[in-house]
């Protein structure tokens, strides 16, 4: 699949590297196309770099991998998103405290869906550390899950395909509205990983009795 990845940070890098290893063709998009090209040059011929608009145009699916404060600008630079599949991985966090932005009445996922008008948005990957994407899904025999939610069948199919291609198990969390809860889980795992000292080699899995 052709995948546009917006952003050049930890998540964009990890996803570009691992999805290209899995056989996908990637264009990374940045506010600075040179930065995206330099990152892509480190990843082999299946990854190229360009502007945000170029990466959005390239992707059959677009992964939004920017900081919360960059979402508005990224969506604006992505251009016409009518009917496009967007995988929103953002956590709406205050960059200083890593707390969820106070007073938010919905979720980043719903906000992205509303701002991108008729795009098909799926929330996914926001509860998984970039380090885990790089090191893999196996935790002493148990497979880490990637929780996702969406209202759109096409977006669901893309998310499930990419999650499985990365070696993780997809966990359907229902409608996009449930991004409100997934984003709290994203904030919680960051608190566990950093201030509480568990580190980034941790992941969520729903335990189920047979
Ligand atoms: N790190 C993790 O383990 C992790 C896990 C799950 C979810 N997340 C979420 O995933 C998103 C990316 O996380 P990250 O750790 O990769 O962040 P990061 O390393 O800080 O990178 C964020 C990227 O956002 C882009 N950006 C910043 N301001 C922007 C703006 N005004 N317009 C457009 N792009 C802008 C930057 O790209 P350019 O400067 O190249 O344009 C930058 O590369 C965040 O929302 C985060 O909460 C992170």
What does this structure look like?
By secondary structure, the chain is an alpha/beta fold. It has a single domain, classed as NAD(P)-binding Rossmann-like Domain (Rossmann fold, 3-Layer(aba) Sandwich), CATH 3.40.50.720. The protein is built from eight helices and ten strands. The chain has an eight-stranded mixed β-sheet with strand order 3-2-1-4-5-6-9-10, sandwiched between helices. Strands 7-8 form a two-stranded antiparallel sheet. The chain binds NADP nicotinamide-adenine-dinucleotide phosphate (NAP). NADP nicotinamide-adenine-dinucleotide phosphate binds next to helix 1 and helix 4.
Which features characterize this protein?
210 residues, alpha/beta, eight-stranded mixed sheet, two-stranded antiparallel sheet, 8 helices, 10 strands, binds NADP nicotinamide-adenine-dinucleotide phosphate
Number of strands: 10
Major beta-sheet overview? 8 strands, mixed
Q: What Rg do the Cα atoms give?
A: 16 Å
Report the end-to-end length measured between terminal Cα atoms.
35 Å
Oligomeric description of these chains: single chain
CATH topology: Rossmann fold
Parts with pLDDT < 50 across at least 5 consecutive residues: none
Element pattern in H and E:
EHEHEHEHEHEHEEEHEH
């Amino acid at each position: 699949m052709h995948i546009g990845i917006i952003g050049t940070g930890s998540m964009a890098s990890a996803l570009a590297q691992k999805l290209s290893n899995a056989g996908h063709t990637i264009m990374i998009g940045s506010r600075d196309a040179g930065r995206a090209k330099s990152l892509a040059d480190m990843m082999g011929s299946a990854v190229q770099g360009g502007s945000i608009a170029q990466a959005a145009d390239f992707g059959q699916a677009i992964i939004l991998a920017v900081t919360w404060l960059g979402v508005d600008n990224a969506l604006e630079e992505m251009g016409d998103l009518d009917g496009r599949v967007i995988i929103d991985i953002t956590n709406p966090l205050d960059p200083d405290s890593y707390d969820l932005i106070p007073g938010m009445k919905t979720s980043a996922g719903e906000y992205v869906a509303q701002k991108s008008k008729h795009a098909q948005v799926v929330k996914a990957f926001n509860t998984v550390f970039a380090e885990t994407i790089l090191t893999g899904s196996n935790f002493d025999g148990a497979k880490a899950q990637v929780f996702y939610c969406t209202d759109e069948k096409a977006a669901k199919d893309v998310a499930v395909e990419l999650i499985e291609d990365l070696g993780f198990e997809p966990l359907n969390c229902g409608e996009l509205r449930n991004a409100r809860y997934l984003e709290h889980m994203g904030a919680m795992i960051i608190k566990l990983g950093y201030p509480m000292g568990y580190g980034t080699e941790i992941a969520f899995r729903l335990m189920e009795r047979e």
